[in-house]
Amino acid sequence: MTAFFDLPVRRHEVNGIHIAARIDGQGPPLLLLHGHPQTHAIWHRVWPELTRRHTCVAADLRGYGDSDKPAATPDHAAHSKRTMAADMVALMRVLGHQRFDVLAHDRGARVAHRLALDHADAVGRMMLLDIAPTLDMYENTTRAFAQAYYHWFWLIQPAPMPETMIERDPVFYLRSVMGGRPGGLAHFSAEAMAEYERAARLPGWATGICEDYRASATLDLEHDRQGRAAGERLRMPLRVLWGERGAVGRNFDVLGLWRAVADEVTGGPLPGAHYLAEETPDALLREVAGFLGWDGRE
């Protein structure tokens, strides 16, 4: 297999935009989705083992990395999780994958949640990292959570205030967010940090991340409420992991909230804070092996 950072990043035209992705490996298809404020490079430490077992598609969400950065819309629909999920289903179909497993972190896990609801037939098994359902997190916000996740409430302020402040020094913003978690910036390799910083400097990045969060606090909540009222549930096997030193597990009953909206849920904490694929790659790979059925198979 080619080393992660030596692989080309290719852009694929889907859903009216271009989505950037690295692709490698062999075996059943696995879609990998990153969170804020990073890119698909979060998977570089687990990539060698994942690509031994799977055809891996590590994609940048719209608004992030080398994917297109659509203009903001008044209703934030261009950055809704429904739209982002449609991007990823279209990407996998362009690549020849009608059905696939999903491993997703943070914002990407919120996209994956909506993808699995809107396109249930496309998803075999799904693993989500360090999130509870968005609707429950907003509706059960406490001071402790708001203080730990202040960016949830700052990024949704009307444009152009947060965008202007971020664009003044996007690398400072990125380092402040990532370095503000337990363990600081020590978890991240020099190659990965260089990639995140490069992506943060790209035109449209600040708009993309702000619109992602604005959509989550408005249109995405409408979709979630409508879906729950209609009896919408996740039907595929779901495994949820979170950092034992992170804010999500401290502030929410993670498994209880997921079991309220999904049929088959397992999971638990890993010995990290938030960026689990980079903080605790070996522990994460053990979980993936069990969940995706690697055990005893070469």
From TrEMBL:
One of its GO terms (molecular function) is haloacetate dehalogenase activity. Gene3D superfamilies: alpha/beta hydrolase (3.40.50.1820). Keywords: Hydrolase. Its EC number is 3.8.1.3. Residues 28-163 form the AB hydrolase-1 domain. SUPFAM superfamilies: alpha/beta-Hydrolases (SSF53474). This is Haloacetate dehalogenase H-1.
